Amino acid sequence: MTTRFGLLGAGRIGKVHAKAVTGDAQAQLVAVADAIAPAAEAIAAQYGCEVRSIEAIEAADDIDAVVICTPTDTHADLIERFVRAGKAVFCEKPIDLDLARVKACLAVVRAEKGVLMVGFNRRFDPHFRAVKAEIDKGTIGAVEMVTITSRDPGLPHLDYLPRSGGIFRDMTIHDFDMARFLLGEEVATVTATASVLVDPKVAELGDFDSVNVILTTASGKQAVITNSRRATYGYDQRIEVHGSLGAVAAENQRPVSIEVATAQGYTRPPLHDFFMTRYTEAYAGEIASFIKALATGTAPSPSGEDGLAGLLLAEAALKSVAEGRTVKVAELA
Amino acid sequence: MTTRFGLLGAGRIGKVHAKAVTGDAQAQLVAVADAIAPAAEAIAAQYGCEVRSIEAIEAADDIDAVVICTPTDTHADLIERFVRAGKAVFCEKPIDLDLARVKACLAVVRAEKGVLMVGFNRRFDPHFRAVKAEIDKGTIGAVEMVTITSRDPGLPHLDYLPRSGGIFRDMTIHDFDMARFLLGEEVATVTATASVLVDPKVAELGDFDSVNVILTTASGKQAVITNSRRATYGYDQRIEVHGSLGAVAAENQRPVSIEVATAQGYTRPPLHDFFMTRYTEAYAGEIASFIKALATGTAPSPSGEDGLAGLLLAEAALKSVAEGRTVKVAELA
Amino acid sequence: MTTRFGLLGAGRIGKVHAKAVTGDAQAQLVAVADAIAPAAEAIAAQYGCEVRSIEAIEAADDIDAVVICTPTDTHADLIERFVRAGKAVFCEKPIDLDLARVKACLAVVRAEKGVLMVGFNRRFDPHFRAVKAEIDKGTIGAVEMVTITSRDPGLPHLDYLPRSGGIFRDMTIHDFDMARFLLGEEVATVTATASVLVDPKVAELGDFDSVNVILTTASGKQAVITNSRRATYGYDQRIEVHGSLGAVAAENQRPVSIEVATAQGYTRPPLHDFFMTRYTEAYAGEIASFIKALATGTAPSPSGEDGLAGLLLAEAALKSVAEGRTVKVAELA
Amino acid sequence: MTTRFGLLGAGRIGKVHAKAVTGDAQAQLVAVADAIAPAAEAIAAQYGCEVRSIEAIEAADDIDAVVICTPTDTHADLIERFVRAGKAVFCEKPIDLDLARVKACLAVVRAEKGVLMVGFNRRFDPHFRAVKAEIDKGTIGAVEMVTITSRDPGLPHLDYLPRSGGIFRDMTIHDFDMARFLLGEEVATVTATASVLVDPKVAELGDFDSVNVILTTASGKQAVITNSRRATYGYDQRIEVHGSLGAVAAENQRPVSIEVATAQGYTRPPLHDFFMTRYTEAYAGEIASFIKALATGTAPSPSGEDGLAGLLLAEAALKSVAEGRTVKVAELA
Hints:
The structure is a homotetramer of 333-residue chains. The first copy, chain A, is of the alpha/beta class and 333 residues long. Chain A has helices at 12-22, 37-47, 54-59, 75-84, 99-111, 126-137, 167-183, 200-204, 275-278, 280-296, 304-323, and strands at 3-8, 27-33, 50-51, 65-68, 88-92, 116-119, 143-151, 187-195, 210-217, 222-228, 236-243, 246-250, 258-262, 265-268, 327-328. The first copy, chain A, has two domains: 3-114, Rossmann fold; 123-282 and 310-331, Dihydrodipicolinate Reductase, domain 2 (2-Layer Sandwich), CATH 3.30.360.10. In chain A, 38% of the residues lie in helices and 26% in strands.
């Protein structure tokens, strides 16, 4: 079975997904839509597909599934439209920045018995998957502590920040999802600290650039997330899980693995400087997983509920910072 | 100038300090005291010093300084006695497990204009010192985040735990001191989570075996401490400091640096399995630093106040766990 | 300008090159030929190109360049035919296992002013390129010693060995080329030792499975190559260059970068187990370089002469082993 | 039983051995001799032993063993004198730079049934010992290839070089011994290349500063030794052994294990810059091994014959370079 795809959004991420879809022998890219015509046309030319309107894709008989890579504030609407149109939906994270809107959207998905996968791509990074595989094999025994270090090479453009939803909803959300993925048990409490150390303009926007979060589960497992919006040495993305029988860690990635030795010491190059080069394999992997789920009729994962759970933890972290206390997730759900 | 030493306590740590004192060309070990005569005699025989009573050492004209390695509950009394006797005092941590007792003891030291150094040996680990040196050189710019991972190979004997003061006062206190050492700014708030994952008997004792702590300073710097009482892979002792211009990390230490490659992968040996082998150089370094301070007439560091500050953070962490909130250090001081 | 390609050979390597050609925006795969029709048809179907005979590709007006991935014993003939037909030629190594045949072939290429690139793909491995880039930047000063470790996961099929040309022509030849690439000066002498340690059947075939080679240049630079046909831990491919100001090394590559810590130690997974996964990027890189050379009218590199030079060093190594002495390359040229 | 020691030579290495002897609970340093009186007196003062003449030590009833750390050209004479005097002898390498002299000396030792240990300290480096232990445990199966990289931080003083015996006898000899230690089979052939790349003055002295040597055994095992007299990045001392079931490697050592990450990359400090800091534990270990052998009445190892075997390989390497061919060790024995 070949899954026939429509692509909504031909921007940076749209191109990545176009490549992933066309590179998969079980998928076919039928059409692409974008408000900016030349962007859509470029993808159409490169991959031999059509340019269509969103409405045309919605109505199309020759399209089984869509990949939504449009701006965040259109996600929830498009998910609802396309599950109603009977298409399977892969949507970039987040579903929405507003908790109520996400819940409403997921209610529609459920009502329509729609198929929805949310783009938490990091679950598909081969290194992180290998960490998960070791946990699942029992190598480290019972999971006790998860440590996630996640630092960006630099602040996003300051005009993006106001519509980012803030660091917890924009950046930490990936780590919330990863913590949930690795803990193997739902998060019960969230405790966070946050400050502005990178750029005082971030404070003017009411946001933070340096945060730490501790998550706990009912059985006492703990996860620590450390975020900074700026690391001169590159895109710092490490995961470590400590358990009763051992630990497993995924190391940082760099474009080339060389080491230069001089009188000043032994130097390896900086890390990747961009999430799209760091997570190249993860982007391809998530689309492959979506295609496979559709082919086998299984529920794609991470689900819309996973998207909601991540956002809930972001809300709880904000509340924790505001109130200087540990917040129970149940307070918000 | 040669500093003439009396050693109080001939146990495990006493032996370590005896070796450090005798190995220093500027020091001489004159006498050793211990309630268990054979222990004192063994040190006396090996290093050619006398066995004396504590009282005799207190009264001795030929002794300038003492190293206190007796049980914890005698520390504060002995510090007071020996500063009153005009001896310089190096005391193993902690001064006492009780905050009020520590404050009273330090009041005596101040009143007597006594010289007191507290044995936070990790400040003298060559790797951690090198981390500090890079910070001081400005290599990483302004310190923003300190991450300290500290895991013991295994639980201490369960009969030790009740008199340990609990994990925060017994184990985390080293990390509190290290965080203070590296942050370069006093800690303003403490937020902690704690659970029992290693052994349910720890819970019966009202203690924890798995904790995370976030410290913040007035300017928004943050430090994260992760502790577990059990790591199958050895004595896990890592430090990482992230700053505006970069980061610096001290790696774990193992007895031998080999790597075995087989069809199962590339394996390096486990870490040190004992704090005394892990911190061999640190123990020697702290005594050398004490001797040097005495020789040059400078104040030895870490001081009694550093000992107090560490204990204060332990108290704050306990309060944070109990009340589920961020605790201001000022609440306790 | 788009270069239009014909692919000769639809086997394992043919598929790799088909992907590289179609993935390059400046290239188009027009036709594929293979004696085994289904192999050619599969590539044609996947990439939307035609199946043609070798003769038809030779005569085609719509093809500018060919990639030769047919069996080794056809390489020299095909190179001659296609340069005579005015096509640019990329040929998998080796041109031929016989020195005289290679020289005759290159004479035809020169006479026809043909364009020929030989597939020493490792020059395009990003890690090895980064090593070369550091040398070229002057980071390590004058190159003095090159150390190349190259071990296969396991012996090739024993029925392949008799037509492999022997370990020096089949396996070490890659390292000879890499040594030439990195030394920056022609090799003057070759000294080799060789034995059979992996499988006695290799000795029955008159071949070796474990060899060491030292190369020297006129100015005294030295390169050491270590080869084994079997490494349980994976495809061991390391390069290290020592110079007057420092050294630079390319580390081994593994599919995932995780580390598992248990009571038995810290274990990272084995290396890649196959040259095609180890050198994925190198295969794509060499074709991209060929396309770029054609587009810019520069001579592609490595050239036919590089192919000849590598073979010459293999001959010299064989002679060195046979005669138990250092062989001057000039003796064979 | 306590072994009572005389120390011959109070220079740099003498001090190291004095510390090792006095630090061993089963040994006692009774006397030290040195032509330079203040050197001997300093050691006597520090460790509470006597200064005596060589003759007095030779005649002493209260001395069981001597450690010879005098200049190389006195070693053979002193070994003969002291075995004749019935003392057990530990002698720094080499016994002598002249093969005939070494053989004559060992004949005396045999005739006198003397006890002689030669100071190839690297066998006692804990990392290299751990490599050997893995081989002995069978972890890597049958040893096939040994790779030893040994580079000095810089050239010795040029006035030392003429009496050093040349690079093979002075520097490579350690690696010859290590190769013998690890191969587990005697070396049958030696093939070497040598050049002057570091300093042309080395060539004026008829010596080399950059060499590579391949050793083979009767069964076809091979060892490669790479030496340079100058490495800007420190004292480069690596060992790697490849076998039928895997490989084991000892990594380089540095004084502190930190890593600094900046926009320029991840940098670890240079290696040790001096053999005495790199091999601190090895020096202590070899003396401890000597003391233990005496205490248990076993033959100390490495023996005088090991000293001879190393020198023989150095001679063979010189001959190989001079004649441009593989030299059989049997030609020289």
